[in-house]
């Protein structure tokens, strides 16, 4: 049809009615306003204000047996007053005729076509002919009436028995495949069509035949794929409102409307809810190319979307499927939709239980593990079964753990690095053609073609990646228009099939696969949060215990000093007053008691100093390092004052607590002198930026910190002791060697450095080469 009226209006996105339709624009064809009907019936449009006929199909006079023009005449002249009022009152979407009760309708005041949940006929008589008449309203001011020859007086009881048997068979089906096979068989039995099949829409909207029943001499369609353009979006949407579509004769020309533009609405009428709506010329040519004379389709709806169609073709001639059989088929389609939805939900629930089992197994491993990267990779089959993958990778920073069939770790890093640059909104990205989507990785995938990636957090390079192998298969298309140098719509382009080998693709990732891995991320987050809460509680308890221990140590060290000092004093008095009368063995024993008391006093002093280091609040101030070093040297004990201390950066200024820095320097310089041989051991104090040391970057920024280093050229420290020397009361030598000591000095010095926000560490040492101790301080 090429009728075109430039004054008409159309819904957004569709072409104006009457536009020439081609392969390039068929997805915008206004199929609801074709401007004509299928010619086995007739149509009249009635103005509701006065019940006058204002538009008709070109064949209405012949089909209805009218001798005179019907336009401008009251509907009652054609159907009689009772028939006209009964029919108009039953029309959904229209206002009530004058003098009649309002009929229920669903049309909006805008005048758009009413959604029809299966039009039901009213039997009317025109002259000596009986018709099944279907009335609906594109708006309150207009009624459209379609006429089909009345159904033959078939046995209602026999049809009822058939329906009862059909419903019982459908409701007893235990699997989706069994349900659809039974539905296919019933539709063929009810309609007598040569071929009936179930056509399922895939995720990209193309269709595949999954069940078929046909005459033995016909070449089967089972397994054929059909492109999405064969049933464009507007046609799929219409099936959800008008559940059955039948075409009695693909060779019959449509009967146009007279006039094309309705005088009441000023537009081509929307025939979407009707039975007789003319067929797209594209579809008619397609049917002819396939050798199909008549066809019918029944919608299968699952969760509010068009899941598929039960379709049928007839090849031996035209075939009119009368209303009662269409009604039975519509009922069958609704039962199949409900039962299929239930079976699919059952299967999805079973799969969801499997997913829950695998997810909980993975989370249990994580809950009991500290190294989560290794733990995730160690969950084995459960991690893979979560989304039916062949391999998986766990990536945290540069660390990659692989499981099953995966590309090399370097390829995995490159894959997630690209995702970090453009992270998906929900952190989930899927591909079933990885070589196409990431061509730079194509040469190194090793037979893997699909990837499902999940970011474990909103920021940071932490990813889980699942992989699927290439799924090599052949798709046979039932569409000659896709084959090279073939035109499926031209009269000479007869219908055929062609096959293509599908390579480079994995099985697609389903919505349930995606939901499964997202649920794992939520579980991982909950597990980590629970562990963090347990750790936080443990830290609180540890902090309380440490505080109690520090207080206990302070009290012990402070309160025991007085009786210990008294013991030392009275022991001295006793030896002065009575020592001459004590036997040599007694004097030796008293000397041992005195040495032990002195040792205890030394330990108490060290413990008290360590406790003070934790309890004292630093008071930082600008300081000259040269002044602090000079003051420190003046405070050195006699056995350390022999050392020659050189400050190599005399102009340095720092910001620190004077007493803390002095204590640190006293400890480091004293140790340097103690463990350096010779009469005048050389000790160097130098300063350098934080970034030049092994601890670079541990503080907030190298521009804010300096490192003070104390270097000696003494006996050095073996590598295995470089950390243990900072343990409290830890000594590497005998108590009296190298001048003795409690072994607490370095522990106290490190704690003082940490209390100021810095650190103290051994930068370098080797036996016989000396040592370099460093501590960080803020710049002034």
Topology:
Elements lengths: L35 E2 L4 E6 L4 E6 L2 H5 L10 H15 L32 E5 L2 E11 L2 E8 L6 H16 L4 H16 L3 E7 L5 E8 L10 E2 L6 H7 L4 E4 L7 E4 L22 H9 L4 E9 L2 E10 L8 H45 L4 H6 L3 H5 L5 E6 L2 E6 L4 H13 L6 E4 L2 H4 L10 E8 L6 E8 L3 E5 L20 E5 L8 H68 L5 H32 L5 E4 H10 L9 E4 L5 E4 L1 H17 L7 E8 L15 E7 L33 H11 L4 E7 L3 E10 L1
Strand order of the largest sheet: 1-11-3-2-6-5-4
Radius of gyration from the alpha-carbon trace, in angstroms: 46 Å
Count helical runs. 16
**Shape from CA axes?**
rod-shaped
How many individual β-strands? 27
Strand content: 15-25%
Largest sheet descriptor:
7 strands, antiparallel
What level of helicity do the residues show? 25-40%
Low-confidence stretches: 1-11, 95-117, 480-494, 529-533, 696-702
Average residue-wise pLDDT: 79
Distance between the termini: 89 Å
| Class based on secondary structure composition and strand pairing | alpha+beta
Structure commentary:
By secondary structure, this protein is of the alpha+beta class. The protein has 16 helices and 27 strands. A 7-stranded antiparallel beta sheet has the order 1-11-3-2-6-5-4. Strands 21, 22, 23, 24, 25, 26 and 27 form a 7-stranded mixed beta sheet that branches. Strands 9-8-7-13-12-10 form a 6-stranded antiparallel beta sheet. Strand 17 (448-455) and strand 18 (462-469) form a beta hairpin. The radius of gyration is 46 Å and the shape is rod-shaped. The two termini are 89 Å apart. The model is unreliable at 1-11, 95-117, 480-494, 529-533 and 696-702 (pLDDT under 50).
């Amino acid at each position: 049809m090429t009728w075109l009226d430039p004054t008409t209006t159309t819904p957004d996105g569709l072409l104006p009615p009457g536009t020439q339709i081609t392969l390039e624009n068929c997805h915008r064809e206004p199929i609801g306003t074709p401007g004509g009907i299928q010619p086995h019936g007739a149509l009249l449009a009635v103005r509701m204000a006065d019940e006058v006929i204002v538009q008709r199909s070109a064949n209405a006079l012949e089909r209805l047996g009218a001798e005179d023009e019907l336009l401008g005449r009251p509907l009652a002249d054609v159907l009689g007053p009772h028939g006209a009022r009964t029919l108009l009152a039953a029309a959904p979407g229209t206002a009530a005729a004058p003098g009649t009760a309002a009929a229920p309708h669903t049309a909006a005041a805008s005048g758009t076509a009413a959604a029809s949940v299966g039009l039901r006929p009213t039997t009317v008589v025109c002259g000596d002919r009986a018709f099944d008449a279907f009335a609906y309203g594109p708006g309150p001011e207009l009624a459209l009436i379609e006429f089909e020859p009345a159904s033959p007086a078939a046995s209602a009881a026999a049809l009822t028995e058939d329906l009862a048997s059909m419903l019982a068979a459908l409701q007893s089906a235990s699997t989706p495949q069994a349900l659809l096979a039974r539905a296919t068989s019933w539709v063929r039995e009810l309609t007598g069509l040569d071929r009936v099949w179930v056509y399922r829409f895939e995720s990209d909207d193309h269709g595949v035949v999954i069940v078929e029943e046909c005459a033995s001499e016909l070449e089967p369609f089972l397994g054929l794929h059909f492109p999405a353009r064969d049933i464009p979006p507007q046609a799929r949407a219409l099936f959800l409102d008008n559940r059955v579509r039948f075409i009695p004769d693909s060779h019959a020309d449509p009967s146009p409307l007279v006039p094309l533009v309705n005088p009441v609405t000023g537009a081509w009428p929307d025939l979407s809810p009707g039975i007789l709506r003319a067929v797209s010329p594209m579809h008619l040519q397609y049917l002819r190319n396939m050798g199909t004379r008549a066809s019918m389709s029944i919608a299968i709806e699952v969760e509010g979307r068009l899941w598929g169609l039960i379709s049928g073709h007839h090849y031996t001639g035209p075939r009119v499927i009368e209303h009662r059989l269409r009604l039975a088929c519509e009922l069958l389609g609704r039962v199949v939709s409900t039962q299929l939805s239930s079976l699919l939900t059952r299967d999805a629930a079973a799969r969801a239980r499997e997913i829950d089992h695998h997810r909980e197994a993975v989370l249990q491993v994580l809950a009991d593990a500290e190294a989560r990267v290794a733990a995730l990779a160690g969950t084995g089959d459960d991690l893979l079964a979560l989304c039916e993958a062949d391999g998986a990778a766990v990536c945290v920073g540069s660390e990659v753990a692989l499981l099953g069939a995966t590309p090399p770790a370097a390829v995995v890093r490159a894959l997630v690095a690209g995702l970090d640059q453009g992270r998906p909104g929900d952190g989930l990205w899927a591909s079933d053609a990885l070589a196409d989507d990431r061509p730079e990785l194509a040469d190194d995938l090793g037979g893997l073609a699909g990837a499902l990636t999940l970011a474990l957090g909103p920021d940071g390079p932490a990813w889980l990646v699942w992989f699927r192998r290439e799924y090599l298969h052949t798709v046979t298309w039932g569409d000659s228009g896709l084959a090279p140098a073939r035109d499926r719509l031209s009269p000479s382009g007869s219908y055929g099939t062609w096959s293509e080998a599908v390579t480079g693709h994995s099985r697609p990732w389903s919505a349930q696969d995606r939901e499964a891995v997202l649920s794992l991320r939520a579980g991982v987050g909950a597990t980590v949060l629970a562990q963090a809460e347990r750790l936080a509680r443990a830290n609180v308890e540890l902090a309380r215990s440490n505080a109690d221990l520090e207080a206990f140590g302070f009290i012990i060290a402070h309160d025991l000093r007085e009786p210990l000092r008294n013991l030392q004093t009275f022991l001295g008095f006793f030896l002065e007053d009575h020592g001459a009368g004590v036997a040599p063995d007694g004097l030796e024993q008293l000397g041992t008691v005195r040495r032990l008391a002195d040792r205890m006093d030394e330990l108490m002093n060290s413990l008290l100093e360590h406790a003070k280091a934790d309890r004292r609040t630093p008071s930082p101030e600008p300081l000259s390092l040269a002044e602090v070093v000079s003051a420190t040297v003046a405070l050195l004990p006699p056995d350390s004052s022999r050392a020659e201390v050189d400050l190599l950066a005399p102009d340095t200024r720092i910001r620190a607590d004077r007493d803390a820095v002095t204590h640190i320097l006293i400890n480091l310089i004293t140790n340097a002198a103690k463990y350096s041989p010779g009469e005048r051991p050389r000790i160097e104090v130098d300063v350098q930026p934080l970034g030049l040391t092994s601890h670079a970057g541990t503080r907030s920024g190298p521009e804010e910190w300096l490192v003070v280093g104390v270097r000696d050229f003494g006996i050095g420290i073996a590598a295995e002791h470089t950390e243990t020397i900072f343990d409290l009361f830890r000594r590497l030598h005998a108590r009296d060697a190298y001048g003795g000591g409690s072994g607490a000095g370095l522990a106290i010095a490190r704690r003082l450095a940490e209390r100021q926000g810095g650190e103290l560490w051994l930068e370098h040492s080797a036996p016989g080469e000396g040592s370099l101790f460093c501590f960080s301080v803020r710049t002034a």
